[in-house]
Amino acid sequence: MRSKTSTQLFQYWNLIRGDRERPRRDEIEPSAIRTLLPDLFILERDRFGGMKFRLAGTHVCALFGHELRAQQFGTLWFGSQAGRTLQVSRQVMARHVPVMLSATARTEDRRELATEALLLPLASNDGHSDRILGSLSPLSRPYWLHATPVNGLDVTGLRVLDPDRTAALLNGPAQDETFSPGIRRVQHLRVFEGGRDA
Prior knowledge:
23% of the residues lie in helices and 31% in strands. The chain has a 6-stranded antiparallel sheet with strand order 2-1-5-4-3-6, sandwiched between helices. Strands 7-8 form a two-stranded antiparallel ribbon.
C-alpha cells in the first residue's frame, strides 16, 4: 500500500475484526476514522446482483465531479473492467477477503493520476456479508485534483491482502475462477489484464 489512507483504514479494519474474517458493520466507529472519511465509501449489493454506492466521501465524489450515492461501482471503470471489478467486489463479499486495486484515473483531456482502491468485507449483525468498506486514494495531489473530474479508472493491478488465501482464490477450482477474470500468473506475479477500451 502506498496511500496513508489505505494503510490506516486497513489497520483499523484489522483491529476491529480481531481474529475473525471480517468485522460487523455496526462496529465501525466513524469518529475513530474521521480524518479518513472524505476518501471512504460503502458498497452494498443490490437486488439485481450489482454493487452500488451506499455512501461516498466528499473527496471520492469530487474526484468524479458528482455525487456517487446509489451509482453502480462498475461505472467508475473503463470498458470491460466494469464487469471485472464487479466480480472482484462480489468475491470480496462472498469470500471475506480484503483486496487492493491499483488504478490510473484519467480525465477527458488525458491527464492521469495513480490511485488505490481498498475493498474490505463487512458483516451484518446476523453474520451475513452484505457490505464493503472501501477507500479510493490518489497517490499524488496535482494542482487540478478536484477541479477537473476524472472520466474513469483503469485497473493496473490487483492484490489479495491475505497471503494465506491468495493461491486458493486465484488458482482454485473452476467454480472459484470468477474471482480472477482477466488475471494471469507470470512467474511470481499476478497480472490483471486491463488497459483502456476504446
